[in-house]
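Example for tutorial group B:
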């Protein structure tokens, strides 16, 4: 059953849903779907989303990442935040219709995780969350936006090839603008991912929480592989011949690896992942070490 605090997030999802309808509608029927109203919906949803995360943090005295549900909600918040900032800085109103359509679907799906029993183990909950998890989440959120920009690029390119100069074509920016923004979002996310991985390496070696063979942990390996593919992408991007369609296609492929980094550890039995709360209880870990585990609101 949804309680009063969780209903704040439900409210945010509701406004995101309205925004998605208005954002997409404004592309084809601007006279019926006001951009101003769409901006109101997305900003209201973002405020409710922020309030929900702040309340979770206050109650747990921790970052809102102790359960699979919280991590999903936090990650989706960062995606919306970066998308909105990018939209206003670069005057790119066509970005949010693509972003919010995807985010809304995942927000609705995340509601099913509210009663999920997967929680962060106590030792990992004590980890340097500020210098490890936040940079990595921000980096992945930036990569998500670059992935969406890549879809926009390929969509606009197809419009040009087919000479379909309709409402969608007119609403999208030029290929040059999209190519430039793909580059900027990736170069924003890559240093953050680097900071997160370096701090994680220091923690793993100093705490020994993942064992002596910490570097063979599935999530560590996937994180390092993600870093390598984006480093290669940035290196290739420096070449004059590697831009546009090639960058868009490779960026989409790289984002699939980002998703694998999130999902993979659950399938590989990583210590560096969320575990069932019953396992924590069976191990008789003291309550203080379980982080916020299963906070009842």
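The residue assignment follows.
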């Amino acid at each position: 059953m949804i309680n009063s605090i969780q209903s704040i997030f439900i409210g945010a999802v509701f406004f995101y849903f309205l925004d998605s309808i208005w954002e997409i509608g404004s592309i084809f029927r601007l006279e019926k779907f006001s951009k101003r109203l769409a901006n109101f919906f997305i900003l209201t949803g973002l405020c409710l989303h922020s309030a929900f995360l702040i309340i979770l943090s206050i109650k747990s005295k921790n970052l809102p990442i102790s359960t699979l549900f919280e991590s999903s909600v936090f990650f989706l918040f960062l995606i919306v935040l970066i998308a909105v900032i990018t939209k206003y800085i670069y005057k790119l109103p066509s970005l949010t219709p693509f972003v919010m359509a995807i985010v809304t679907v995942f927000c609705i799906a995340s509601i099913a995780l509210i009663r999920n029993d997967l929680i962060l183990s106590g030792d990992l909950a004590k980890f340097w969350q500020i210098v490890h998890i936040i940079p990595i989440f921000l980096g992945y959120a930036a990569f998500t936006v670059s992935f969406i920009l890549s879809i926009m690029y390929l969509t606009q390119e197809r419009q040009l090839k087919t000479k379909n100069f309709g409402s969608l074509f007119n609403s999208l920016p030029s290929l040059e603008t999209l190519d430039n923004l793909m580059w900027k979002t990736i170069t924003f996310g890559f240093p953050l991912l680097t900071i997160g991985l370096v701090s994680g390496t220091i923690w793993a070696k100093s705490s020994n929480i993942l064992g002596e063979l910490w570097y063979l942990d599935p999530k560590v390996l996937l994180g390092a592989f993600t870093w390598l593919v984006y480093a290669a992408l940035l290196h290739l991007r420096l070449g004059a011949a590697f831009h546009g369609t090639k960058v868009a296609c490779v960026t989409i492929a790289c984002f699939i690896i980002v998703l694998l980094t999130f999902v993979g550890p659950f399938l590989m039995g990583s210590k560096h992942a969320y575990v069932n709360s019953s396992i924590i209880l069976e191990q008789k870990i003291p309550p203080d070490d379980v982080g916020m585990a299963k906070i009842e609101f």
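The first helix runs from residue 6 to 28. Compare this with the pattern of hydrophobic and polar residues in the output above.
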